[in-house]
Amino acid sequence: MAGFFSRLKEGLTKTRDNIVHGIDCVFNGFSSIDDEFYEELEEILIMGDIGVNATGDILERLQKQVKENHLKEPSECKSFLIESIKEQMKVEETAYDFEHEQSIVMVIGVNGVGKTTSVGKLAGLLKAQGRKVLIAAADTYRAAACEQLTEWANRAGVDIIAGAQGADPSSVVFDAVSAAKARHTDVLICDTAGRLHNKRNLMEELKKMNRIIDREFPDAHRENLIVLDGTTGQNALNQAREFGETAKLTGIILTKMDGTSKGGIAVAIQSELNIPVKYIGVGEKLDDLQKFDSEQFVNALFDVDGQA
């Protein structure tokens, strides 16, 4: 895990330069904690993609702590600000219940965000925990999707159910659910198509897949994870909103966090949509997807020594 922390810390360098440098300037540039100090902090957090809602909550918590602890110097607030951001991002332990139950996980998101690789990495993560995992290749439109997913399934050491290119994605899901029941699979992970330019059809397909799962495997724990590209900032937030209109999103996989200047979006998404970031990706290897840890993430963002 230490290796992952150092990769995360390195990946957040641009975000750190973007946000933390500005925050340090505020803490060092003000001699008292006043309205102007808070306004300046607010501007830096919003400009750093942390979002209006999250920024409001973070500063409200900070102001409360400043009063409670009778702080007078801006420099005394920094550790409280960091704690406030950690608190804002905390993911409840129950968020991962599906990992230990018989579950069906739908992985959704637009093309190009790292969806297929995230399916493979999540399968590897669950397999390492001793779970019996099956993958459904329900993105039947993109020629390379099934090929790519088969390669990831092989890397993770799990089985895959696929259909012919252009096949009805719902039929692949039906076959995969039947196979999951017959093989006593712990977790079935379904990769789905991500063509937002044909949004209406895509959303109808997602609904159809959900109906099939509801009918064929009503007792399975359901999880809908959306994959978002951390480099796209506010655009990622909009994608989550659009998909959230069709599927009840239960969590976020945030990818491409190695090298983005918009890492603050992790805070914004969680706050604005009230959907937890459950996994975070910082590279291309099988173990480059890990459970999201707010302590670790904020420590890496602010270059604080010590890991969770």
UniProtKB/TrEMBL annotation:
Binding residues for GTP: 109-116, 191-195, 255-258
Gene Ontology cellular-component annotations: cytoplasm; plasma membrane
InterPro entries: AAA+_ATPase, P-loop_NTPase, Signal_recog_particl_SRP54_hlx, SR_rcpt_FtsY, SRP/SRP_N, SRP54_GTPase_dom, SRP54_N_sf
Annotated membrane topology: Peripheral membrane protein
Annotated compartments: Cell membrane; Cytoplasm
Keyword Cell membrane: yes
GO biological process: SRP-dependent cotranslational protein targeting to membrane
Keywords per UniProt: Cell membrane, Cytoplasm, GTP-binding, Hydrolase, Membrane, Nucleotide-binding, Receptor
Domain SRP54-type proteins GTP-binding: 276-289
One GO MF term attached to the UniProt entry: signal recognition particle binding
Pfam families: SRP54, SRP54_N
Keyword Cell membrane (UniProt): yes
Reaction catalyzed: GTP + H2O = GDP + phosphate + H(+)
EC number: 3.6.5.4
NCBIfam families: ftsY
Quaternary organization: Part of the signal recognition particle protein translocation system, which is composed of SRP and FtsY.
PANTHER family: SIGNAL RECOGNITION PARTICLE RECEPTOR SUBUNIT ALPHA
Role: Involved in targeting and insertion of nascent membrane proteins into the cytoplasmic membrane. Acts as a receptor for the complex formed by the signal recognition particle (SRP) and the ribosome-nascent chain (RNC).
Family: Belongs to the GTP-binding SRP family. FtsY subfamily.
Name this protein carries in UniProt: Signal recognition particle receptor FtsY
Species of the source: Parablautia muri
